[in-house]
Amino acid sequence: MGGKQLYAWCAYDAIYAPGVVGKTAQISSRDPVTGEPISITITPDGVADVQPEGSVVSVVGGDTDLKGGPESPRCSQMLFFRSRGTADKWLQGRAGVSILTVEEVFGIAKEFQIEPARRLGLV
User: Fold this and answer.
1) Cα(100)–Cα(7) distance, integer angstroms
2) Please, which pLDDT band fits residue 65 given cuts at 50, 70 and 90?
């Protein structure tokens, strides 16, 4: 992001951070099922590119413990997947986890993190 290599604890953090800081970011990740690479470009205003097309994100909600950092049940289950198929394999036996497109997750981040930060003049 902004010419610097940074790390995020979970997929959601990687998606919302560029909008909050006002920089474009190139996200590189690996599908936890196949190990294959995923590449996503996020601008402060949206998703510019997703490779491979059809990559998705696991998002935790519901009754899952919202406390803690990277070791929390919430953050440790928010991952990128190359396809809905690999996400569905990983999802088996996990409760409170949804699979969304990268664009859908950016929309949530925009509403709950990015726009509030802009209204407060933090961006």
Assistant:
1) 22
2) very low
